[in-house]
Amino acid sequence: MSTNTKRRNAGFTLVELLVVLAILALLAGLVGPQVLKQLGGAKSKTATVQIRDLEQALEMYKLDVGRFPTSDQGLDALVRQPSGVPGWNGPYLKGSAVPRDPWGGDYNYRYPGQNAEFDLVSYGLDGTPGGDGENADITNWGGQ
């Protein structure tokens, strides 16, 4: 066997490597957006679950205190007793703080609400009202 034949069989050619890289790039281009789309949907579902948990905590607060926290007291009233609120028997949430939405923003709470007894909203990825996809609002009254 000659040295030329040995050298040829020893590894991959540059063309072969470029073909493999091109195929990988095409696959990443096709699969990547689908994976990111699923990740965004998971965050929206997580926000919906967190809003349901906050609703339940607010209902427990109302049972103990007789009313929902005011807008000024906010969701913080679920983890720390507001001054001048007799009957508070919290904390009503696990942990020492109100959870942030999956995008790192605060949940917006308003009592009395404009759309329900109280309004609880995550403004999604962009942090502003309205939007589509990951930017869509997640609310306790079903509006998106």
Walk me through the structure.
- The chain has 144 residues and is mainly α.
- Helices cover 41% and strands 6% of the residues.
- It has 2 helices and 3 strands.
- It has helices at residues 3-9, 14-65; strands spanning 108-110, 119-122, 138-139.
- A 3-stranded antiparallel sheet has the order 1-2-3, with helices on one face.
- Strand 1 (108-110) and strand 2 (119-122) form a beta hairpin.
- The longest helix is centred in the N-terminal third of the chain and has 52 residues, at 14-65.
- The protein is elongated, with a radius of gyration of 26 Å.
- The mean pLDDT is 86.
How do the helices and strands line up, and which of them pair or pack?
Elements: H1 3-9, H2 14-65, E1 108-110, E2 119-122, E3 138-139
Antiparallel strand pairs: 1-2, 2-3
Short description:
By secondary structure, the protein is mainly alpha-helical. It has helices at 3-9, 14-65; strands spanning 108-110, 119-122, 138-139.
Average predicted confidence as pLDDT: 86
Q: What is the C-alpha radius of gyration, as a whole number of Å? A: 26 Å
User: Could you spell the SSE succession in H and E letters?
Assistant: HHEEE
- Spatial strand sequence of the major β-sheet: 1-2-3
Secondary structure class reads: mainly alpha
What can be said about the biggest beta sheet? Answer: 3 strands, antiparallel
Uncertain parts:
none
What is the count of DSSP helices, taking H or I runs of 4+ residues? Answer: 2
Number of strands: 3
Cα(first) to Cα(last) distance is 72 Å
Beta-strand content bin: 5-15%
- Percent helix among the residues? 40-55%
| Outline | elongated
